[in-house]
Design goal:
Helices cover 60% and strands 0% of the residues. The chain is mainly alpha-helical. It has one domain (13-135).
Length: 136
Amino acid sequence: MDPQTNSPKIDSILESVKKILGLTKEYVSFDSDILIHINTVFSNLTQMGVGPKDGFSITGYDEVWDDYETSNPLKTQQIQSYVALKVKSLFDPSANANVAAAMDKAIAEMEYRLYVEEENSRYSESLSLEEENADE
């Protein structure tokens, strides 16, 4: 149970994305399509330098958000939103041009923020390493 929302916490990556898409876990007709989109988004994140250096992919319901390693655990919530929104735009794009434009703008902002945050984390890590090496 999530203490903030008082609702069941969904750890499965696939299940949480399906929930955002309005699909239940039991409805499996589009699981393979959704898996492809989720893995595409994870590939995009890897190319942006976000997440595990060797990339990440899922094969079903067994993979959970805690499996996705980031430089900052607080970033996981933002990544969850990004993955869900990006998958929604790929899997079920809005027919309304204004809604589609708003989603694209939100996705672009999240990409920018994730990229900048990751760059800042790497810069801070490199400074720490330089200080440690200088002390030796």
